[in-house]
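Deliverable D5.2: sample structural annotation.
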Amino acid sequence: MAERSSSLTPDPRIRSLPGAEVRRRFVDFFAQRGHEVVPSASLIPAGDQTLLFTNSGMVQFKDVLTGVEKRGYKRAVDYQRVLRVAGKHNDFEEVGRTTRHNTMFEMLGNWSFGDYFKREAIQFAWEFLTRDLGLPGERLAATTYTTDEVAWDIWHDEIGLPSERMARWGDVDAGDDSNFWRMAETGPCGPCSEIHFDRGAHLSEGPHCVPDHAENCPRWLEIWNLVFMEFDQRPEGRVRLPFTSVDTGMSLERLTSVVQQVPSNFDTDLFAPIHERMRELLGHDPAAFEVERFSYQVIADHSRAVTFLIGDGVMPSNEGRGYVLRRILRRAVRHGRLLGRREPFLAQTASVVIETMSDAYPHLADARDKILEVARREEEQFARTLEAGTRHLEAALADLVRSGATIELERRVGRRVEDLPPEAPVLDGEVAFRLHDTYGFPYDLTVELAAEYGVGVDQPGFEEALNEQRARSRAGTKGDLSKHAQQQQIYQAALARGETQFLGYETTTTPATVRAILRDGLEMEELASVGPTDAEAEVILDRSPFYAEGGGQIGDRGVIAGLTQAEAAASKWTAAFDGEGNTALRIGEREPDTQFRVLDTQRPVPGLIVHRGRLRGHLRVGQPVLAVVDAGRRSRTMRNHTATHLLHRALRNMVGESARQAGSLVAPESLRFDYPFDRALTAGERRQIEDEVRGIVRENRPVSPSTMTMAEAVESGADAFFDEKYGETVRTVRVEGYSHELCGGTHCSQTGQIGSFLITGERSIGSGMRRIEAVTGDGADALVNERLEQLERVTHAAGAQSPAGAIERVTELQARIRQLEARLKAGAAGGPDRPGELARTAESVDGTQFLAYAAPFDSMEELKAYARDVRGVLGEGVIALALEADEPQLFVTVSPELVGRGISAGVLVQAGAPVIEGRGGGRPEMAQARGTRRDRIPSALEAIRLALSAQLDS
């Protein structure tokens, strides 16, 4: 059983609020106090090699806190998705067992970068908790770092907390990190002050029960950590930061449990819908749920983590981030089996996560199909591994019994290996390795299963067998979760030999010298490809024309070719790129034997440009090379970057100066631009913005970069982009008479080089945040040609003579469809044989019966009853019915035989719902949706038919 505190006594002074409302109030509170609302960053840290995942709200602000990066604001507020399953902050083993721990959770945070400090941070926190949320002040307590007299005095003298509700903790120099926070082994850090909520004196377990960092007592729940950033932890020790800052973190899940007055995070409305879906699948009543709470909590937590990880682009694998995802997903699957669920279920729980979280995280809805497919496929694959591995493990445990060991026949689900007595029997490490190596059974799952039977696992024996296998295969592993920190040290060592001189503003090619070669976390003196296989590596040069990803602009691609001394002096070359990373390069009369195809360029630490790609031939440190950027790809990227500046200015001219950039992506194919705004742009506004940008393009205005101090840039009115890195000296880009921005990216020299500009989309990406997507140049030309071809096909399909006539013709066809539907409805009222008559009209979709029908049923109950009647006549097949009303509804039912073949009503209804501008979902057997566009019902039914065909083909 999972840890669960006794019931709480309701406090009538605390008003229950939904978790989404708590999130909104937090953001609004600080926005009203001059804090910039910053979107949540990905779970994959951008450009930070020290972390596997974003494990706190401060990750995206790390360089701001150290002064390396400058932002256009000094106060910020955000809600940040974080994952704590690796490294310094790892809650994986506690999930499900305790009421307080989660793998993926939301961190609410407010930030000060050299602005306010301890006094304001404490006062803001007290005001939000006691005034905006209405928590009684006498139920709050605070801790401070042992030597932090300033924070203590503010709490005691200004806020008025009595000494008995305060505690001092921590001595970082003596190894006690309590009330001293740092993100990782290195980076910004400082003393902190934690706010705890008193859940009731009846939960006290004795004199030791005080608000402390260890969380040893269920009475006190830590809800908010106010970190006062003063230091930078470096390998050689702590040094003072250039300015003091505030970094606060508060778990939305914990705070919601307080506001909703429930015993645990898992009882809040952030998790309850997932529990409810699992109860539906299992047929469990509330009593059964409580008995199996541990497994339910594991599944609910891990379903959220899996959904967000896949949504952020992580795919299951046997190393790094993909291994962590696989480990989380497999643990959830095993607990589903413990509950008796043999069929796949993770796609259904992930659907609930998407439905409940996509308002705050719209990218989940965008990636819905991918998330569900990856979860379903991985679960099905692991189900076979789990069954086979469990059988072999239980056989090995039986061998222990035969050898005289005493093993508990009744498994205790949730028992940890740490809880086993010293005399517990131990499973041989060779057995654990064989399960891992032969059957793909994860070691940590072997440990968990064995512990439930009261058996330990010989970890040294397992590791010895694993190391022997690695030695035999001459291969290490990338699965070590400390690899990122080690890689960072290698980059710092390379940087110590000198920065990479960036020449990409002036040229796309330059002779250079190899300064370092990195492969598999090691620095090498030389590297050679073997046979026809290219060698993956990272190459660092003394100078480079390659632009490293930054400021929203992706990194350059191209080639680095090895030269002889004579070739280095002659420097006559030609190159052609195919857009796929391949190149035909000739230096003089020959093709170089050594070519390093650059597939990406990054700047993992300031001052260092790292070229990532594949080597054919032989490369060594100190070798002269020719670095050549794919100029065509760079040109397309430059067009999109300059167009982003024009779009930024045109947008602000249209809707106001507050619509400033909050994120961007500049790629060769397209651009996207994020900005704060509370509504969608109208069609007229979109056209006006396009027209204004196109006008500046046609005027062919000069684009002029310049370098100046930050103070000069601010004085001249330059705008700052969201993700750029700024130092004391900055680069600005001015479009004559139109825009002026701080930007380190590459740009056109004249706006006319952009060629064309076309907005392809504008949508919400979160509360108060919008995104515009656009294309330029040949990308815009290609899109226009594609749309013209589509219009010609529509014109032909409608039987019209011209595109103008197609509109009238489609209107006529729609009217005719309505007439036919009315006749069908009239026929339906003629007698009881109608379901049978309708069943005979079913069409065949790849050999499967499909029936679509729309009518103004009196209710959904009537529609469902009608579907049952039709099913009785039709038998096997898919039935899609629509209720014609001002708020139309779709209903899809799939026969059991087809469900067994992988056809899902939930997936089918998801194809039709957007057509009627609605949302929906359901089970594989049955699903429904509600929308707003009655006139689009025929198109929605057609979309369902096409989705069925796609499922049958897959």
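Annotation notes: The longest strand covers residues 220-234. Residues 473-481, 721-725, 828-833 have pLDDT under 50 and may be disordered.
The annotation will be released with the project's public dataset once the embargo ends.
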